[in-house]
Amino acid sequence: MQRVERIVVLALDGLYPFELGIPSRIFGAAGGRYEVLTCTVDGRPVRTNADFSVAVEHGPEILETADTVVVASMATPDIPSGLPAEVAAALARIRPDARIVSICTAAFVLAAAGLLDGRRATTHWQVVDRFRVMYPQVDLDPDVLFVQDGRILTSAGAASGVDICLHIVRTDHGSELANAVARSCVVPPFRDGGQAQYIQQPVPDSGVTSTAATRDWALTRLDEPLALSDLARHAGMSMRTFARRFNDEVGVSPGRWLIQQRVARARDLLEASDLSVDQIAGRVGFATGASLRQHLHAAIGVSPQAYRRTFQEAR
């Protein structure tokens, strides 16, 4: 019988209702593989940044039973300047081996608790300067959607909470289930954690040619050695114009985007096929198995063999 993982969401005063609901919505769509419970530091209702409060069923004692703890984000005026005693007491109940996740500004809470000391982390780009002044000991990366550093995961604002929860489902149970959850929730199935969190021009101006058609074209040809010149030619633009417009729309360079897509496709094949690493490398456009190993390790910190073994053991 498959083990059900317990996710406990810690709701703090001033929270954003949208972010509070993300774990329940995403993990709840994973076919009974997770149980999601919500608690506060004292079991009492908490304020939101909207015109209502939220009442929960559990107090902080439920944190002792959590496999994963998600700390929901709070509005900027409610970010604590330190670690309130009641929050510290609640966090102290978390098991040493539990996974801990922050959504958006909740990274301030983890940092105040010392959980991010010496670790790489992220938070919402609008509060980056404040975070760096308060917690210089944290290796803050403000340009990504989410970061996993061991058992600690941090994410940027709002929708990146969806991305990090899907990342957890994908890590725990593979791409097939994560994609099914994404379809159920009508959200993108995969946005790489290294994708830029703030895209200057997500939608091209009226009358300006988009790179979307070329991205779709490239996704059907990942096994080919696609160069910037090939992409620009397909889009009918100069390489300089294409590269600038691509970055404006996607938030990363064409080269980095291609690597992200090839790594994502390689992960699917590692999970769902018995192809060798060299065969997978060829199918997704990496010149050698060594190149695939390098890029996969840079993206998620493990080798292809270790990644495949994780999902074989889960099946």
Automatic annotation (TrEMBL):
Pfam families: DJ-1_PfpI, HTH_18. It comes from the Bacteria. Residues 212-310 form the HTH araC/xylS-type domain. Keywords: Transcription, Transcription regulation. InterPro entries: Class_I_gatase-like, DJ-1/PfpI, Homeodomain-like_sf, HTH_AraC, INH-QAR. One of its GO terms (molecular function) is DNA-binding transcription factor activity. This is GlxA family transcriptional regulator. It comes from Streptomyces sp. R08.
